[in-house]
Backbone:
């Protein structure tokens, strides 16, 4: 048999298996005709554009905090990524997402949705939810759990990505990188992190990425290894000194409690 035909057959078989793996359950002896190319399947997802091959990372959860916004921000539109497989829509189509009332703790008056419209010609789109800041978010995290529901336009897609949990608060949780910087920034305090967000903004550090050759460092993208400051990142270190000076010149207590020692950086 012609080698080209063999390779083409194997390649087609691979793509069929990939689709089946993504959008059907992997139960033993399952009917392989379950995935129908004439149907449309919808799930929560995000494409990893940095991967060398087509890959989908399923986002089970995401977290948003109003503490990352300007103080006067009271409503925020949050986009939750979705993706489809199957027949490409030639017109805008309605899809259905339901709030899981049993698991959701976010009050009903604290969120609204944009219309559930999947726009034509897209492989990816987003569910947009308007979240309202409430006073209780200063001390408590709330969750909004969404489930994709089959309707006349879309079947439910990948069985591991049919639900999504969005956590909302007005608190600053300790970022994963903080423990690598305690020699310079001290133990974690939300007050210090908040001021760091104001200090080390996007664009403040012109250090270029070795990959993209564009500025990339800011409070939300810190070096991922233990840095040797100031040698490795002199501009980052300069901003840490600005942060230290701020707390020297301004008396700030943890959570406003003056019975505790004021916050000072090492």
Residues:
């Amino acid at each position: 048999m012609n080698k080209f035909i063999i390779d083409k057959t194997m390649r087609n078989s691979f793509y069929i298996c990939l689709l089946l793996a993504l959008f059907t359950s992997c139960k033993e002896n399952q009917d392989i005709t379950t995935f129908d190319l004439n149907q449309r399947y919808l799930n929560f997802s995000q494409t990893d554009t940095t991967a060398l091959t087509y890959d989908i990372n399923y986002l089970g959860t995401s977290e948003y905090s109003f503490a990352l916004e300007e103080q006067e921000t009271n409503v925020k539109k949050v986009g939750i990524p979705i993706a489809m497989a199957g027949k490409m829509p030639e017109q805008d189509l309605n899809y259905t997402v339901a709030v899981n009332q049993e698991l959701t703790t976010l009050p009903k008056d604290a969120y609204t949705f944009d219309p559930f419209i999947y726009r034509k010609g897209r492989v990816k789109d987003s569910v947009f939810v308007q979240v309202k800041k409430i006073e209780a978010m200063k001390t408590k995290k709330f969750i909004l759990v969404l489930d994709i529901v089959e309707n006349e336009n879309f079947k439910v897609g990948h069985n591991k990505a049919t639900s999504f949990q969005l956590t909302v608060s007005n608190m600053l949780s300790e970022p994963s990188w903080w423990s690598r910087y305690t020699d310079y920034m001290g133990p974690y305090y939300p007050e210090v992190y908040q001021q760091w967000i104001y200090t080390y903004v996007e664009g403040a550090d012109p250090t270029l990425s070795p990959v993209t050759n564009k500025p990339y460092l800011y409070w939300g993208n810190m070096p991922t290894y233990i840095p040797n400051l100031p040698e490795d990142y002199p501009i980052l270190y300069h901003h840490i000194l600005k942060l230290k000076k701020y707390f020297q010149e301004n008396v700030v207590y943890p959570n406003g409690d003056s019975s505790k020692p004021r916050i000072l950086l090492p």
